[in-house]
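Lab manual, section 2.4: Encoding a predicted structure.

Procedure: take the sequence of the chain (184 residues), apply the prediction step described in section 2.3, and record the output as structure tokens. A sample record is shown.
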Amino acid sequence: MKLPSLALLGSILWVLFVTVAHSDAGWNEGVFFLCYGVNVVWGSAWVIRLLVYAWKSRFGVVTKRRRLAYWAIEPLALILAVVISHSKVPFYLRFMASRPSLEHYVQSMKDPERDSRIWVGLYLIRERTEMLPDGVVRFITCDSGFGDHAGFAFAPKSSPPVIGEDSYTKLPFAEGWYHWDRSW
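Recorded output:
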């Protein structure tokens, strides 16, 4: 049995990492720079390897011929990583997989502020959950860069209240749910 190449394994792991990193309510600047930095460095290294290979092939120095599949794996993975990072598909899939747990969680709220650091579905709630007037429940699931945080708000009757520099975006696929950006 032939083992998969290091390029194939690395490509699969990279696409999986980008998918998970872009599936939370937000992402911090570290993840942003890591994702785009790795894509730029890896893509540049691939172009250099391809140019060296082409130069060696032209002068007959190449000892091992490479097939198109060998050269296509890495750029396709890098392009897929960029497409995934700009799409909302990972976010949608993670939210929908967690939705029953999230709805059970907000409906079981009795304390005005519940303890933090618990898993609800596929999300780690990182701070105390807040219960606001009109049955609004909101919680933070991640950092969203430059000191801000992101999470979700459930507001069954009306839009959640804006406190400070908060902003909300209604989730079109989940009635009563909002993406919450808490800014300082």
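Check your result against the sample. The CA atoms of residues 88 and 140 lie 19 Å apart.
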